User: What shape does this take?
Amino acid sequence: MSTTMPGSDTMPFPPNSVYIAGEWISSPDLERLPVLNPASEEVIGSIVDASPAEVEAAFAAARAALPTWSATAPGERADVLDRLADAFREHGEELAVLASREIGMPIKESRAGQADLPERVLRSTADIARNFPWEARDASGTTVIREPVGVVLGITPWNFPVHQIVAKLAPALAAGCTIVLKPAELTPLNGLFVAALCERIGVPSGVVNVLTGRGATTGEALVQSGQYDLVSFTGSLAVGRHIGAVAGDRVVRATLELGGKSPAVVLDDADVEAAVRATVRNCFTNAGQKCNAPTRLIVPEARREEAVSIAASAAAAYVLGDPLDENSTMGPLASAEQREKVLSCVEGARARGARVAGGGAVDGVNRGYFVRPAIITDVEPDDPVVQEEIFGPVLVVLGHEGEDDAVRLANDTPYGLSAEVWSGNPARAADLARRIHAGQVRVNGVRTPALPISPFGGYKASGLGRELGPFGLEEYVEVKAVLGDPSDSIPSKEEPQCVL
Ligand code: NAD
Assistant: This one.
């Protein structure tokens, strides 16, 4: 495999190809889509918009590979994940640079989130697979068997491109499933890079297949194909609703990892300065394009002005620039469309009377989709800027009148993906965490542990199902109960009455 810097013409896979049944396939008939670097607006590659023919071929390959792959021992599949993790370590810098070039993520964040984290997810999933209760007896004597759900369709967004692919690929492979993956059209090269690593370490042909293309064309053809046993989707609420409806109509399992509008709740006994600075940092990772970003800072009303001032000065200190420059602390937004959406959300709030610090275009910068981070306050709790996911560097500061009011505000959106709570009293913080309707609550700034096995997923409109760790693996298995002890003799004619 080439180790040439990604983003140049040389990639570890042929241009304009998709990966099906262990082969790189291209067709001159397929439409080409350019891949842009959002920092420079330069074309860094191109992909094909895969058609229903490639969709058909990919599912046929995944279906054909299923019997053999699902019959391999869990320990053998775990060994494959470890080998893939080794390849991620070897090519981590290339993956990170490519992620920075595809979405504009600062290189330090790419190294942590798109190389190191996926490697750790692969290794931790391998360990879980080695110790998973694939077959166990329950207290009634029934044997409970966990079997692979079958062929998986994985559809991922662009914001944490490699991590989101691996969060589906690792449990699918560990469970004995085969998979057809479609990465987002803004970050397809990373998806193809992962396919090339699978090929390199000898994942059997057909077990992993990667198609590129638009959501409305390739994505829709995949979803409508009816050829999968589970669809695992990460992306927007609108598309998630649609995919969930299609899956529900066919009675096919769907896991949906959707949006968020996560609160950071600061109680009156917390270190306000530390809480505000950490919230700004967490909110503005990847220029705020993070599903679990704490985008609503809820502080005691009496401390709101102080919090706004700390947040505004922390936001103003961001160094916007080339994501590959180690000194840049914020890159551009991922696309022109994303920049327009963020700018119009902030302007809309201002027009409705909100006070805005920062925001807007960057003076003197004519190329790249850069937007200055914004801190917004003086808004009603039902304002769109408080209720709707913006997916950009925008933090809203709200005031609360005590713990109950803070909980009410925290829970007052359609979403429930994540939350942060801050208190000087650990017992109070733990109590507050229990009152918040979210799939993950982080106490006093704690980040994702080195062992990434805690369940991740949403309450309410943030989704269905969980990723990572044992809960994530459970999504990829069917459960079978075999009643009757094989060592028992044939039951007598006087059987107990059948009730179920
Ligand atoms: P998106 O929904 O537009 O696209 C996500 C993926 O779905 C892409 O691969 C896209 O091509 C595909 N797609 C689009 N329309 C489709 C269709 N009709 N049929 C099949 N596939 C289709 O989302 P996005 O803009 O790429 O990502 C941003 C969103 O993702 C945000 O809302 C964010 O909160 C969410 N997200 C959620 C999580 C989570 O774990 N909860 C993580 C990251 C991002």
Notes: The pocket of nicotinamide-adenine-dinucleotide is lined by residues 155-160, 182, 184-185, 215-216, 219-220, 223, 234-236, 239, 242, 257-260, 291, 389, 391, 417, 458, 462-463 (CB under 6 Å). The two ends are 57 Å apart (CA to CA). Residues 106 and 323 are 4 Å apart (CA to CA). The domain at 262-443 is CATH 3.40.309.10 (Aldehyde Dehydrogenase; Chain A, domain 2).
